[in-house]
Specification:
The protein has helices at about 1-5, 10-40, 45, 50-75, 80-105, 105-110, 115-145, 155, 160-220, 225-240, 250-270, 295-305, 340-345, 345-360, and strands at about 245-250, 270-280, 290, 315-320, 325-335, 365-370, 375-380. With about 375 residues, the protein is α+β, with helices and mostly antiparallel strands. It folds into 2 domains: about 45-185, no CATH class; about 245-380, Heat Shock Protein 90 (2-Layer Sandwich), CATH 3.30.565. It has a 5-stranded mixed sheet with strand order 2-4-5-7-6, covered by helices on one side. The two termini are about 45 Å apart.
């Protein structure tokens, strides 16, 4: 039926466009897989050790380890001295702090190693820090006693080195075990998040797909050019939605959202008016955002603010990029007696919020509220240049 309605030239152009979009999507998926494989080991242990929350947890646990080591040397609570415990705490915390600093400094290089190589390198680095710290402390102690380093011997320089290296082995095993457990927790949380997002996509796709295909069927006889354009945009949108969830530039995300809006404008006609207000458009390429963040929010706005209204409706989208912060505001009209239905469809908003927090942490501000016949969604997060 399609071949009878459209000319051969248009059909071939449509096939080329869809094929090209498939090739482009496949290329992007391969690039994403290679990139994720290269940085696979840039995980919790080799990337997030410098984060305040995790570093604080590790320091608290290391203080317990310092107390245990001091108690084992004193052999009883009675013989345990506060100065001795404090010395262990300062020593171990210094080792951990220096280790975390080096890990954070070289984490991109370490991320290129295999898991075993990265673990060996990190363990060796920890032992090197223990060695240097022990030597420096012994020299400081000798100088503080004799006010000179002229007669210092090798035994004085490497005093208790074997004992401290054994502490380093224990501390290294402790760090590796702790980070492994935290890594498993993080991966489990990410898996649950991906499952929720995929479930959200599975709910959105049938509703949108059926409406779009019905519009294509009706347009084939009326306006074949619009039907062709709608199919091309639809194929690009679904290629993107079936990709692995990843970070894209804000420019790409806006372009994808505009393709979705173009489909809906063909279906809804003059009832749908979208007003974009993009400040600093030249910075869009430098800002990252999770793939398919704006599209579910715009779909939500169209479904509740435009599709159910007979008169024309306007959706406003503000994108503002400040020095290190992105502000996105989406507004749409709503019918007062449908506000409870909107609350029932909060899964899309919640999933977008969780995805943003997974990438940008506590810097994310996400809020939706109704007032003055408008429903407003505000997104704000801090970003780093791509």
């Amino acid at each position: 039926m399609w071949s009878y309605r459209l000319s051969r030239k248009k059909s071939s152009k449509t096939r080329r466009s869809i094929t090209n979009s498939a090739t482009l999507a496949e290329t992007k998926r391969r690039h994403s897989s290679i990139k994720s494989g290269k940085h696979f080991y840039q995980s919790y242990f080799f990337n997030k050790m410098g984060h305040k929350q995790y570093l604080l947890e590790l320091f608290l646990a290391s203080n317990v380890l310092a107390l245990i080591l001091a108690l084992s040397e004193a052999q009883s609570w009675v013989n345990l001295e506060f100065a001795h415990v404090l010395a262990y705490i300062l020593y171990i915390n210094w080792i951990l702090l220096a280790f975390a600093a080096f890990q954070d400094l070289y984490h991109e290089k370490i991320a290129e190693f295999t898991a075993i190589s990265a673990a060996i390198f990190s363990f060796s680095l920890l032992q090197l820090i223990v060695l240097c710290t022990t030597v420096v402390l012994n020299m400081i102690h000798y100088f503080g006693t004799y006010f000179s380093l002229q007669n210092i011997s090798t035994a004085d320089v490497f005093h208790n080195l074997v004992l401290h290296l054994s502490y380093g082995v224990l501390l290294g095993a402790f760090c590796l075990r702790y980070m492994y457990i935290r890594e498993q927790i993080t991966r489990q949380q990410n898996s649950e998040l991906n499952a929720r997002v995929q479930a959200m996509q599975a709910r959105i796709h049938p509703h949108f797909l059926f409406n779009s295909l019905n519009s294509v069927v009706s347009l084939i006889t009326i306006d074949p050019d619009k039907a062709e354009l709608m199919l091309i945009n639809l194929s690009k949108l679904f290629r993107a939605s079936l990709q692995e969830l990843k970070m894209v530039s804000l420019k790409e995300e806006i372009a994808l959202s505009q393709q979705y809006i173009a489909i809906e404008q063909i279906r809804l006609g003059d009832r749908l008016n979208v007003e974009w207000n993009i400040a600093q458009p030249l910075l869009l390429e430098k800002v990252s955002i999770p793939l398919l963040t704006l599209q579910p929010l715009i779909e939500n706005s169209i479904f509740h603010g435009v599709e159910k209204k007979i008169i024309d409706a306007k959706i406003g989208i503000l994108v503002e990029i400040l020095e290190n912060q992105v502000n996105i505001v989406i507004t749409n009209p709503f019918i007062q007696d449908r506000i409870k239905v909107r609350e029932g469809h909060g899964i899309a908003l919640e999933n977008v919020k969780q995805r943003l927090k997974a990438h940008f942490g506590n810097s994310v501000y996400f809020r939706s509220y109704a007032g003055n016949d408008l429903f407003t969604t505000v997104i704000r997060y801090q970003y780093k240049n791509r």
